[in-house]
Amino acid sequence: MTTDALDKFNDVLEALSIQNLAVYASVDTVVPLVANQAVYILGPAGTGQRPLSMNSIDSARVTYGGVDFQVEIVSDVEYDALAVKQTTGVPKWAALDNDYPNATISLWPVPYQASALTLSQRQKFTAASTLADTFDMPPGYKRLIRLMLAWELRTDYPGMSPQELQNLKDDLTGALASVKRANIEPVLMRSEVAELDASGGGAFANWRDGV
């Protein structure tokens, strides 16, 4: 029974890992880029952590000579639509093929010289190996994991009334929603037009200050 409970506890952590807003920590995966090489592997056979899901990469950037250039994560469909994929330059797109156990990233344009690609992605929760393992998480997670584990174990401990099961389900839904709300990051509105240089025709140079 304890072994089964430990397995289900790890199932709970795995279920949380693939829910983007349920993960509170990020990890930077730095991929060394080689000149004229477009495809790179993420995972056991390559570099760093395989992305947990298609939307678990929060941001990506390429660094040349201490200068960061933002890279957009795009779908395979958008990448496949490129007529010429071997154009060299500073990468602007990264197409993710999230296979298992390894994922691949295809860059466009292809890096014209050695550099580094940094992927900021949601970090997988570490599985427990024994019942004596401890974990430290932000407020709200202890209650959430306890309720998720109780829900996973409900069939192993029959006897709960329909109302008790419904109460457990409602409590679990509320706990998960609270954790996800706590992890929502503020959205910053941007305008390419507003960020144009004021000397080019009267546009705002700094739209936040209105100057």
Q: Would you mind describing this structure in some detail?
A:
With 211 residues, the protein is α+β, with helices and mostly antiparallel strands. The chain has helices spanning 2-17, 76-80, 141-152, 162-182, and strands at residues 26-33, 39-42, 57-64, 67-70, 72-74, 88-89, 93-97, 103-108, 110-111, 115-122. A hairpin with a 2-residue loop joins strand 3 and strand 4. The relative contact order is 0.18. The chain folds into two domains: 2-19 and 126-182, no CATH class; 26-122, no CATH class. The strands form three sheets. Strands 1-10-3-4 form a four-stranded antiparallel beta sheet, with no helix packed on it. Strands 2-8-7-5 form a four-stranded mixed beta sheet.
Which structural category fits the helices and strands?
Answer: alpha+beta
Helix content: 25-40%
Instruction: Describe the global form.
Output: elongated
Structure annotation, total helices: 4
Q: How far apart lie the N and C ends?
A: 66 Å
